[in-house]
Structure formats: C-alpha cells, structure tokens
Amino acid sequence: MSIATARQAYFVTGTDTDVGKTFVSSLLLARARTQGLDCFAIKPISAGCSRDEAGGLISEDARCLQQYASVNLIEELVAPIKLPAATSPHIAAAQVGERLQASRVVGHIRAGMSTRASRILVEGAGGWRVPINVQECISDVAKQLHLPVILVVGIRLGCLNHALLTAELIMRDGLPLAGWVANCLHADEPFVAEQIETLEKKLSAPCLGVIPHQADSNVTALIDCIRWPSELVHSLPATKS
Ligand SMILES: Nc1ncnc2c1ncn2[C@@H]1O[C@H](COP(=O)(O)OP(=O)(O)OP(=O)(O)O)[C@@H](O)[C@H]1O
Ligand SMILES: C[C@H](N)[C@H](N)CCCCCC(=O)O
Ligand SMILES: [Mg+2]
C-alpha cells in the first residue's frame, strides 16, 4: 500500500458553528474522489435536524457529506445521533430527554470508521469546546479518537482570536493540528489577505487551502484550492544528501 492510499482520518473542527466545516469537508472528499481514493465522512452529532414527510429526522450535513463521499455508508453510520433543536448538542439532547456521553459517541464513530477507506473525516459540532453534556465537550470525542485535527477558519472579523484560541486548545488537549483552512465565507469581506497572512505567521500548522466565497456553493469547482495534509508532505522539496 502506498502512502497515498494508506488510511488517513481527521477530526474537522471550526472556529465556530456555520464557518464551513461541512463545506470544506465536502471539498476534501471531492478532491480525494478525483484522486481515485475511497473516502467518506461521519457527522456524529447532528443538532438542528429537519423532518421528512414521515416525521423522521434529516441531517442536512450528513446528506451533503454523503453526496461527495465515494464510499456509501448507511445513514445510521454517517449520522448516528440526530437531534431536532438547532442549539448546542447538550441542550438539544436535553430537549428530547437524552444525555450524550463522549464514550458512546466515540463508539458510534468507531462503528462507522470500521468501513475500509483511504480518507475519513469526522465533522465536529460547532467549535472545539462545544459542550455535549455538563462535563464533556465535543473535544473529548476527538481526544478519545486520538485523531489529528483540521481547523476550518471562517474568515470574518473575530476569526483571528477564535482561530488562535482553538489551535492553542487543540494542542493543549494533546492532539496534533494537521492543518487549517481559510474559508472565505463572504464575498465582500475586508482585509482577507491580511487576516490570512496573520494566521500563516501565528499558527504552527500548515494552511491546507484558501477557499474563496463560492456563491453557488459548488464545491467541485474548488478542488484545486485545497490539499489533504499528506499532499503537503509530498510537495516538500527533497533534501540534499
Ligand atoms: N466558501 C464558501 N462560499 C460560499 N458559501 C459558503 C462557503 N463556506 C460555507 N458556505 C456556506 O455557509 C453555510 C455554513 O457552512 P457549513 O454548513 O459548512 O458550516 P458548518 O461549520 O459545517 O456548520 P455546523 O456547525 O452547523 O455544522 C452553508 O450555507 C454553506 O454553504
Ligand atoms: C445547530 C448548529 N448548526 C450546530 N450543529 C451546533 C452548534 C452549537 C454551538 C454552541 C455554542 O458554541 O454556543
Ligand atoms: Mg456542518
């Protein structure tokens, strides 16, 4: 098995909710797919699910991720925990009389990850320290999985503080930050280049891509804007012997 086809799995977090974790994960899947790699993503906790005609819960994130995956997982594996309220997972769970537990969430993810693939993503819920119960956060799920982390930075005013705090916490939690992605959420955002330059200087992990605002949300047109962390390793210049 070559390095390119060896299994690589990452936990995808963001500087906040709605910063493009699903969008960037879809883009990474689309890229892996064009490289002929087996890939899929799991969205372990989906809060804010809509309802189908039969009253069943729909995880829009999971549907989007499945659309770009090349490995077709059953819905229960892609989106094992679906909650109707569009709020923090611990509140959404309490609304339906449930209590989430990191070890059980991890069990669901491991079940999904037992499917063979070269590239696997696990999308978090909101940002790194989003509570899943009174004691535990979504970061505890990532920690128990021991996965390297990809940080999606939604480029907007305030993202520098959020990105630097998140990167610091990921490393303090003992997980490697495999890379970060600058996701341009808005077409008319001022000082985009300056903010990205600041992050390049202050974050120790590599930038995996700068994703422009894409009005029609068509990720396929953007596959050259991003790299998987392993691709950066391969693009490093060879050392002289
Ligand atoms: N580069 C972009 N260009 C245009 N629209 C974008 C871009 N990135 C994200 N969006 C849009 O912003 C919205 C939020 O993105 P997304 O759903 O990926 O966020 P998220 O971080 O996954 O949120 P959640 O915390 O709910 O999982 C979506 O409507 C998405 O299509
Ligand atoms: C419902 C939403 N789209 C996310 N899935 C959950 C976001 C939780 C954010 C909690 C918080 O940081 O205050
Ligand atoms: Mg999402």
How would you summarize this macromolecular structure in one to three sentences?
With 241 residues, the protein is an alpha/beta fold.
Descriptive account of the structure:
The model has no long low-confidence stretch (mean pLDDT 95). The chain has one domain (8-230): P-loop containing nucleotide triphosphate hydrolases (Rossmann fold), CATH 3.40.50. 36% of the residues lie in helices and 20% in strands. The chain has helices spanning 21-34, 60-68, 75-78, 89-95, 102-113, 138-145, 159-172, 192-202, 229-235, and strands spanning 8-14, 39-42, 45-47, 50-51, 57-58, 81-83, 119-127, 149-154, 177-183, 207-211. The chain has 241 residues and is an alpha/beta fold. A 6-stranded parallel beta sheet has the order 2-7-1-8-9-10, with helices on both faces. A two-stranded parallel sheet has the order 3-6. The chain is globular.
Which SSEs are present, and which pair or pack?
Blueprint: E1 8-14, H1 21-34, E2 39-42, E3 45-47, E4 50-51, E5 57-58, H2 60-68, H3 75-78, E6 81-83, H4 89-95, H5 102-113, E7 119-127, H6 138-145, E8 149-154, H7 159-172, E9 177-183, H8 192-202, E10 207-211, H9 229-235
Parallel strand pairs: 1-7, 1-8, 2-7, 3-6, 8-9, 9-10
Antiparallel strand pairs: 4-5
The structure holds adenosine-5'-triphosphate, 7,8-diamino-nonanoic acid (DNN) and magnesium ion.
Residues 21-22, 61, 123 line the site of magnesium ion.
Cofactor: Mg(2+)
Subunit structure: Homodimer.
Subcellular location: Cytoplasm
